[in-house]
């Protein structure tokens, strides 16, 4: 058992941290040595995670690693432990791939900035902490890693502190992020007071014996909201937008592709392994509801943005909403669809952020109103952007289609199996969100890459090859994972899903065989993923109902008469609506020259929804006190819901 | 009036000189005995770093700048971090687990004594760096005024 392979999880985490320290030591002397250290530590971490694929994902082993050999004594785990099952490794792979791509991209992308030693030190610490979070088998270590992750991410957000709003965005992230960390800490303290252990495996073994202990239920609410903050779910989405708009593109990739995935990982681990309570309808409603609300609100918010990266930030939360929605369904198909979409989201959203960074690097602007026609000057970046946009919108040959299709199917199957209209409604929301995503990326493509080329961007050049290579890595991954969904399902998703459903094995591997059975945890597992039964007539009827509803909603929202009326009669009102879009925390700054066709491609839709948008506009006040208040209200709501109804 | 007030009182200077070696020695003692007695790397490291404050109190900001190199302290900090990880990692390369007690296997001593020293070194360098940074922001314009005025006062004596 004690082969050298077992050391790989700790070595992968430590090599990133050592890389951070060595970078700050040698980086001041030579830029080449600094980049070399960063590259070596990222590559080594990636290679170690890949080396674990065979034993963990394919052979189904669980690597349990006790630091300092402090193994459990008489059924009590006092030591710190790393426990790598297929679920952890799945997220570990996402993290290391994203870190590698982001790091390689930074070498060229960040060359205009100074004090890069600090950048790379923080970057590697961020990477190491995220990897430590997903591989940890100890609740308190998860909290420590969350803290390191939040603070390094805040520092990196403010790294380009000459940008307007950089410090402000970072401060908001710090304050509201700390709210999430505190919520996590409170949850951990409550669990520890009741169960006297911090080991994930032991906690999950002991929780069922507690019955309806209100403290344990309150701890669930706190932990759930803590991880939801880290995933920037619904009431927390404004900070993601403020942080993304000012962070360097490589850090945006990390925040959207890696940090939000930590929240997703935490929620899956919490709901499926620790509490095993996703068979309860209330938890399903709660998790799916949060996912569906963030999915829909963020996509409509993205519609109004006039800053390339703010727009991507809202889409990022919208896609994480998809993941959480699918995870909350509580079925094996739902979890694997969620995992698939989590992986795909890292890939395509990373690609989109990197193309946004490329545009910013070459033109110095992210303003959708002033950019335009860049396809003539940056054809290769345009191609990469189109691949990413097609993926996120769920167009068939790319990976977004495969995972979104699985999510629709999972939601629909859940609705058909239980006859519950909530899940059918979620399915409709997911469909509409996907349409809106496509629409908003048409807007981006139109206003950045097509249309008229403004005078000041006539001399813009294509980005260097060193920046295109990381983008191509992600683009190829987009296509490959989209073309071979069956293989992805068999080799990646199925092991990770069965790990999520097999808490007993997770407990046994850490605490010794038979520990789970002694605490009454039944062995679970997933044999295969059932896709919807095609020939079930009621399913077809429900599908018909779904599509009719979706069509009806879309038709009602934008009837041609309204459009005409709005266009002809209410010019004043339209002006009012147009003014609203220039509020700085809502969408961006007003600009003198504007590509009207591009940025206001869907003004009729916006006009019809002006009441909703003006409400959302007031809601995104940009005041950190308000955002904290929303967070506190959300935590209180979840706490009350859990305690009263569970 | 102002320049006279700036001159460090002889009592403060003597006390600082007296307590400086004491603080350093006591700090080192707390670090080295961290594994068997209360205290440890953090507390001891802070005690040693407080030497900077004593120098500041007794001899002023310019002396702090002259006596300590914040660059060297910064490198020491990272070296201490690397030391800690390397000590922890050595366990792996001797065929055991991370952080395992391999040096004094079977004895009462533990590897944690070495790690404690690394932590003490790290905290000392880190806090010293922070203190120097804070003190330099504390009196930015004093530097120009302080240095000449001190010479004037000292010279007639």
Structure description:
The complex is a heterodimer of chains A (646) and B (157). Chain A contains 28 helices and two strands. With 646 residues, chain A is an all-alpha fold. Chain A has one domain. Chain A has a two-stranded antiparallel sheet with strand order 1-2. In chain A, helix 5 runs antiparallel to helix 6 (139-157), helix 5 (116-135) runs parallel beside helix 11 and helix 16 (399-418) packs parallel to helix 18. The longest helix of chain A has 32 residues, at 332-363. The relative contact order of chain A is 0.10. Chain B contains seven helices and no strands. Chain B has one domain. In chain B, helix 2 runs antiparallel to helix 3 and helix 3 (41-59) crosses helix 4 (61-67). Chain B has 157 residues and is mostly helical. Chain B has helices at 2-6, 10-32, 41-59, 61-67, 70-93, 112-138, 142-154. Chain B is 75% helix and 0% strand. Residues 1-5 and 143-157 of chain B have low confidence and may be disordered. Chains A and B meet through helix 1 of A and helix 5 of B.
Q: In a nutshell, what does this entry contain?
A:
The complex is a heterodimer of chains A (646) and B (157). Chain A has 646 residues and is an all-alpha fold.
Topology overview:
The complex is a heterodimer of chains A (about 650) and B (about 160).
Chain A: H1 8-26, H2 31-51, H3 53-58, E1 63-66, E2 81-84, H4 86-109, H5 116-135, H6 139-157, H7 166-195, H8 200-206, H9 214-230, H10 237-246, H11 249-274, H12 281-303, H13 308-328, H14 332-363, H15 379-393, H16 399-418, H17 421-449, H18 465-483, H19 485-501, H20 503-511, H21 515-518, H22 537-557, H23 560-568, H24 571-580, H25 596-599, H26 603-608, H27 610-619, H28 624-645
Antiparallel strand pairs in A: 1-2
Chain B: H1 2-6, H2 10-32, H3 41-59, H4 61-67, H5 70-93, H6 112-138, H7 142-154
Helix pairs in contact in B: 2-3, 3-4, 3-6, 5-6
């Amino acid at each position: 058992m004690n082969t050298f392979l077992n050391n790989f999880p700790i070595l992968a985490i430590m090599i990133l941290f050592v890389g951070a320290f060595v970078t700050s030591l040698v980086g001041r002397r030579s830029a080449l040595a600094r980049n070399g250290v960063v590259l070596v530590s990222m590559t080594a971490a990636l290679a170690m995670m890949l080396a674990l694929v065979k034993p963990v994902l394919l052979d189904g082993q669980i690597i349990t690693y006790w630091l300092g050999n402090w193994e459990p004594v008489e059924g009590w785990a006092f030591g710190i432990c790393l426990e790598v099952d297929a679920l952890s490794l799945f997220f570990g792979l996402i993290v290391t791939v994203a870190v590698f791509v982001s790091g390689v991209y930074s070498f060229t992308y960040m060359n205009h900035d100074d004090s890069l030693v600090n950048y790379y030190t923080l970057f590697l610490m961020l990477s190491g902490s995220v990897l430590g979070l997903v591989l940890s088998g100890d609740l308190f270590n998860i909290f420590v890693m969350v803290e390191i992750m939040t603070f390094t991410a805040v520092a990196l957000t403010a790294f380009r502190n000459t940008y307007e709003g950089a410090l402000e965005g970072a401060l908001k992230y710090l304050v509201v992020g700390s709210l999430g960390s505190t919520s996590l800490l409170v949850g951990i303290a409550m669990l520890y007071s009741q169960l006297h252990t911090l080991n994930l495996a032991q906690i999950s073994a002991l929780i069922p014996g507690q019955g309806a202990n209100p403290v344990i239920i309150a701890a669930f609410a706190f932990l759930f909201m803590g991880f939801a903050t880290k995933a920037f779910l619904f009431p927390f989405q404004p900070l993601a937008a403020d942080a993304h708009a000012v962070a360097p593109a490589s850090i945006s990739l990390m925040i959207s592709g890696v940090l939000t995935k930590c929240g997703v990982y935490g929620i899956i681990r919490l709901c499926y392994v620790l509490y095993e309570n996703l068979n309860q309808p209330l938890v399903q409603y709660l998790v799916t509801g949060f996912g569906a609300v963030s999915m829909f609100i963020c996509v409509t918010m993205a519609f109004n943005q006039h800053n390339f990266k703010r727009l991507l930030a809202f889409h990022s939360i919208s896609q994480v909403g998809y993941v959480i929605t699918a995870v909350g369904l509580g079925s094996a198909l739902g979890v694997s669809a969620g995992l698939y979409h989590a992986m795909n989201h890292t890939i395509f959203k990373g690609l989109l952020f990197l193309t946004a960074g490329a545009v910013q690097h070459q033109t110095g602007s992210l303003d959708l109103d002033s950019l335009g026609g860049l396809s003539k000057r940056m054809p290769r970046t345009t191609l990469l952007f189109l691949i990413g946009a097609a993926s996120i919108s769920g167009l068939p040959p790319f990976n977004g289609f495969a995972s979104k299709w699985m999510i629709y199917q999972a939601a629909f199957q859940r609705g058909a199996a239980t006859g519950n209209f909530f899940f059918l409604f979620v399915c409709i929301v997911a469909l509409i969100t996907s349409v809106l995503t496509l629409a908003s990326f048409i807007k981006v493509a139109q206003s950045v890459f097509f249309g008229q080329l403004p005078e000041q961007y006539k001399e813009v050049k294509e980005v260097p090859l060193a920046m295109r290579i990381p983008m191509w890595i992600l683009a190829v991954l987009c296509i490959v994972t989209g073309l071979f969904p069956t293989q992805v399902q068999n080799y990646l998703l199925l092991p990770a899903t069965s790990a999520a459903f097999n808490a007993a094995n997770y407990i046994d591997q850490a605490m010794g065989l038979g520990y789970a059975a002694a605490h009454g945890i039944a062995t679970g597992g997933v044999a295969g993923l059932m896709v919807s039964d095609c020939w079930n007539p009621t399913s077809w009827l429900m599908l018909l109902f779904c599509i009719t509803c979706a069509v009806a909603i879309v038709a009602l929202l934008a009837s041609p008469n309204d459009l005409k009326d709005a266009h002809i009669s209410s010019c004043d009102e339209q002006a009012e609506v147009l003014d609203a879009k220039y509020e700085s925390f809502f969408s961006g700054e007003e600009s003198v020259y504007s590509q009207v066709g591009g940025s206001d491609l869907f003004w009729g839709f916006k006009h019809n929804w002006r009441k909703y948008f003006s409400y959302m506009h007031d809601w995104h006040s940009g005041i950190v006190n308000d955002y904290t208040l929303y967070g506190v209200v959300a935590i209180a709501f979840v706490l009350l819901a859990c305690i009263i109804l569970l | 009036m102002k320049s006279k007030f700036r001159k460090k009182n002889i009592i403060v200077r003597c006390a600082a000189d007296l307590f400086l070696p004491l603080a350093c020695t006591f700090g080192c003692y707390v670090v080295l005995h961290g594994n068997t007695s209360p205290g440890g790397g953090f507390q001891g490291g802070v005690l040693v770093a407080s030497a900077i404050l004593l120098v500041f109190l007794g001899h002023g900001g310019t002396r702090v700048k002259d006596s300590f190199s914040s660059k060297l302290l910064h490198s020491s900090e990272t070296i201490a971090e690397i030391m800690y990880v390397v000590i922890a990692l050595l366990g792996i390369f001797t065929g055991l687990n991370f952080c395992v007690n391999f040096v004094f296997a079977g004895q009462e001593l533990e590897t944690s004594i070495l790690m404690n020293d690394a932590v003490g070194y790290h905290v000392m360098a880190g806090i010293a760096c922070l203190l120097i940074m804070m003190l330099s922001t504390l009196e930015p314009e004093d530097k120009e005024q302080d240095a000449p005025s001190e010479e004037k006062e000292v010279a007639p004596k």
